[in-house]
## 1
Amino acid sequence: MHTMTMASTSRSPQRTRAVSRATVALVATAALGGCGLFDTDIKNPTAVEESSLTNPAAAANIANGLQTAVTRAFASFHGAMGTVTDELTWIGSREYYNLLDGGDITDPLNEYFDVNSYPFMAEARWLSTYSIQKLEGFEKDGTLRNRADLARTYIAAATTYITIGESYDDFVVSADRQAGGAPVGPNNMRVMFDSAVVWLGKANTIATALGNADLRRQALGLRARARHSAAMWAALKPARTAPAQPLVNNADASADATAALALMSADYRYRINTTAQNNPGINAGFEINQRLEIRAGATLIVPDATGNRVAAGLAGIRLLDPVGGAPDATLARAIDECCRSTSGQLIPFTVTSAAEMNLILAEAALAQNNTAEFTTRINAARAANAKPAWSSASTVSARDLLIHERRVHLFLSGRRLWDLYRFNQKADRWLPTSIAYRKACFVPIPFGERQSNPESMAAGETNVSRPSYCS
């Protein structure tokens, strides 16, 4: 995969990259025979000017660069986001993980949402709209060589915007890489999902014209997710308390889920796969499996004798399937992929799946009191991991089973916090005094962005203030 890094909204990371580039240039200059230390007329054969990106031949590289940026954002973000919930727990020495574990999500100074993940998320956000602008321009001019590159760009951009909408209470969306920009505003964050829906519709149109079933699976699956999350946002965010009706029954999300399932195998998963080339230095796999700062939560797994890792095999899975009573097979697979020493740093992140489509449809059926449809859909999700079928005669209720299956199928994908809030549940490590225990709050605009972009702060706020609506 080709890698291309563009500047983010926050200027602090820009300065860091500029210093790094200057250091590399200085070392290269000193190494050139016959050149003085301060000679400036030096050609860098690896330099890529932004003007080169006006060439339609760069379209594939632009799409690949965006996908790399999204991967970095995911790998830097989901370890911290999982620690806020009961998916992951703090076991190391870094106090900011401990604070997240206790439910303190709104501190703009928390290093894992500030200096670690926000620069990558802001970069992916900015690069999303930049890349779309470039490739749409090529298509308009009739010079785009492969329309699949544009579809891939829409999908990667939508993935970024969906993740931001699901995870942040506010975010800066600006086209200018130098001047600051105002944030979207907490009451307007639904625009993240709306933008994603538009882009995914365009991606599906292109993929349909090309006969590209894989891109259609991705586009339709993600659009179902975006519409489902937008409905959760509308129900939860205004009051920031558990809604009277937490179940989502959105006709458009259900239609997309049905269309996606028609193209998906029973165990289909669209995943973002980290590689040595696109993984940031502080990433979820490193923190879980090597540095041992965090591990899978105590309600999910049995730790080994050290307390730092998951005990070997199925003996390490504490959470039982509520139907069959055995260690949950879906969770066991997820733990094997992310949270054992053998998982290493390069862990995958599931973006959407056939199981999620069935869970969206099962939830809609439950909201409609359609037991037959719920049974069909929930058992289709369970069958992906060969778990025994559920029936209405089971001792576990349909609602509790839905919550359980979402918990294990959507593990480490950023959706657990929504379910804790909307179903009025508390993570096992949340302190009663914490903000997450008291209100449905998400990640704020962090200190670094506020410091470099005064427009990102509301009137009366400082760069260390917690949002007034979540303090």
## 2
Amino acid sequence: MEWARGVPPAYLQELAEYWRTRYDWRAQEARLNRYPQFTTEIDGQRVHFLHVRSDQPDAKPLLITHGFPSSVAEFLHLIEPLVDPAEGQAFHVIAPSLPGYAFSTPLGGTGWAMGRTARAWAELMRRLGYERYGVHGGDIGAGVSGMVAGLDGEQVIGVHVVTDPLTAANVATFLPGMADRLDENDPVDKLILERMEEFAKEGSGYLAIQNSRPQTIGYGLADSPLLQLAWIAEKFHEWTDLPIDRDQLLTTVSLYWFTGSGASAAHTLYEQAHSSDWGAPSAVPQGFAVFGADDTVRKLVPAPAGAHWTEFRRGKHFPAMEAPAELAADLRAFFGPLK
């Protein structure tokens, strides 16, 4: 019950004090700056991205996209195992910041939903000279990755996404008729329905506000570091089940705060909620990694026959932070055979 009404005061007070007095931004800045970073303008939008090339001759380009409320700092434990693995497939990693997030600011205008972002990502890979590449993401990044695969299928070798039971149920609440297709007398369906109802009643407030009034909440997120901290820390707490690096969490919070991107990120969620652009279906090979897996996800995720499917017992919404070794191994297993 401690978190039932939001972030508990004692938790936030302790985290804010750590952020103010002991968190070492310069150390985390140096950690980020170990990786080559660039900006370019695409479709009128400043796009920031990490571009970390592997020394291995058979490395494959891999475009990885974060979600909300996250940043490229999510991948700090994932990049090295992909670029320089002890064994198996290596990758050249391209990790952009979503438009309106962190250094992909200021937001260049309206209309930056997932479809427009996917077209920008395809253009980014073209500019970098990659004729064949893989795509990976979670949360919004999963949607963007799937749309990149749909519109740039001649270049994309495969699309790999991560999910978890709660995310799958939360997404299902937005699918017309999903609840009517489930049987409350079936124990698995009953669990899905319970999770959908819980999200609709208790877990979707942050999204409802940003989907409808991004400008109003944006004032608070741009004005108050405490609100920005609570806005992100709440989701990291609710959507994980393995310990995450507190400094890594605060690096993402700091990136939002320093760039004022809490407000612009909210505007992109509004854009997606009011968008009808869902792209074309993808015909490329698909891979799914389910963290904290149970029997509900197979019923909710439309994986085609023959798709790569891996289930992990632990981890949830942020596996790049919670279980980077397992995620890296699954990416190698999926993309390794693809050409």
## 3
Amino acid sequence: MRFVFFLEGNGLPPDDIQPIGIVRKDMMNPKGGQTGKCNGEDAVLDLQLSAPGHKLPDPIAPLERHTKRITLLQGLSGRVCGGGHSNGFGALGAYSAGSGARDITIDAALAKAHPAIFQHLALGLKGSSENIFYCCSASGPNQKVPHYQDPVLAYNMLFGKILGGNTASAVGSQALLLDHVAGDIKRIESQLPRPEARKLQEFADAFASIGRRQARLQEIDAKKIPAKRDELYASTVETKQLEAHFEIAATALITGLTNTVTLSAGATSYPVWKGLGITVDNHTIGHMYNERPKPGQSVSEGKAMAIKIRQFNMELLARLVDKLEAVPEGNGSMMDNTVIVYLSDSAENHHSSCFDWPMVMLGNLGGRLKPNDRFLNFAKYGAKGHATIGMLYATLLHAAGAPVDHFGTKDTSLIGAVDQTGPLKELLA
């Protein structure tokens, strides 16, 4: 099983994934202000996405060729996260954004359930000069997962030793050296007080883990790794950087280097998408989004720019599916055993309230999740049939064979109204 999470910053308004030909009941958002409308359905809507008269809306239209693999999720809530400009680690952790990396996030939890040579790969675009940043993934309390922003650094880190011509004996020698270091640490450990010995044990475990990873690099077929093209990997244009990250992600999955990838595009940050001809940052676009259109325009200038950015990202996502579909696996392809989840760290809006958290899901993990080609809208907040992001994440863990009763923090406002335990029957096969 493979898992991919793609977080885009600056909010994902429900209208951006609402299919043409399907109407859901909306109501005014209880938070008011810029948050606009939110889900007002009294019961669950579960409709076929490819039925006559239905069509994907313009912002996610590049995914049209993969409609049969798509489940559009509307009506989920994540009020425990708090809302605002970004929900940070809470978006994938289902806990308060203000608590930082409070606990493990869903991507890291799935990575632990299905580890590979590299347990978890995180790549992304922040729009700053940092080579590595931390924004939304954590492997445990205060254990932030690094996101590689520099594609060259990520490429060399993942593929450098494989492409460097290391023989099995060379890789084995490195593993042997690391084993010796770990052994030395264990011998010293017995001479230290317990607190210091515990810290040293963590170093020993880390060296042992690196050794095991190094030894397994010889399993990777170097012919499956594309060349590092300077015009793509060395580019400072954010669109090229993100394109390079998607290529790295696909390669890491196809070669078996990892089973879990998290990609981020402006999560917890506000890049300028110069490669798309946009000259203002995402924060400015967020404030321009709900402005009135100018004469002769169907949408506001801010909304037009936001849609342009989303369409670019959706095309990258569609190409990733193309690549996984092209690799045979069992009686199908790699994509048949993969699930991809696309969402925004800001939930439904630039200034999010988290009453609505739209998501796009592609794939069903080889049938462990119910078939796709669906528009699935849960009941409104507090009504019977409502669901939270924590319940969705628990469902993914059930499908992955690592079941939990609930993931993240329960919404206390829903206790007594919504059963927040166990997997979602609408999704788990």
## 4
Amino acid sequence: MGEYVTNKKIDLKLVLDFVFIAIGAMVAAFAIEEFLVPCTILDGGVVGISIMVNNLTGFPLSVLTIILNVPFLIIGASKIGKLFIVKSAYAMLIFSVALEIFAPMANATKEYLLAVCFGGVILGIGVGFVIKFGGCLDGTETVAILLNKKFNLPVGQTVLVFNIIIYMTAGFVFDFDRAMYSLLTYFITSKVLDIVESGVNQTKAAMIITDDSKYISEQIYKRLGRTVTIMEGEGLVSGKKTVLYCVITRFEISELKEIIKTVNSSSFITISDVTEIIGTHMKKSGELKKTEPVSDDEEAGSQD
């Protein structure tokens, strides 16, 4: 009976995830079509490229976002958590449909400053909802996550580099005023996104106190590509426990929660911001080590 109730709660949570992802995707589409597109202000990533192509060719923006995002989803399908890919594909589909719905409507404004400020804030809210509940709207984020896994490149900085290249291209294609407006919109969107997603940093530290350390650490390694530091702990009431510590990106928080939910026994997890990392971390290489609590004479304070 208890397992049935737990599974029911997980199913309800998953349904709510998809509901809020849809809301976020529609809010983001509203910001794009009603504020940014009328003023030829670009969003970052695939959407920004789609807006440029739409302005140059007249090809529907809704179709372009799907066509350009599909290759990134295919690339990430086998290397990133399946649930993340499913949620992202769902978000992109809702986003594309919403763009088509909002396109014929009257534009909210053609004043550039209003479009930058209000468009950036509304877009940040929409994208923040999508990320908070486990998806993403842009294929470049998928590439950034893959580069992070392989080369340990920061996700946020990688996405920023992609977007700067896109904005520089927009400066040559249109004019540099548009590029600067677009860059300003990106910074506003990023700040609002961080507030909505409840974190100002790309990198997070997760500490998991559990009786199922072997299963959880193996799943983190398999599904997220992250190594885990394993420590021995003891609860005041619950007795001996194993403490797992790992560093992840904010895009992987939802997948980590899904891993924890699959464990029947009680597990306790905290997620905190990481302001700075010194040394190597989060690398997936070699064979998976046997996951047992470290002894007193073993080092327990560093990542594998």
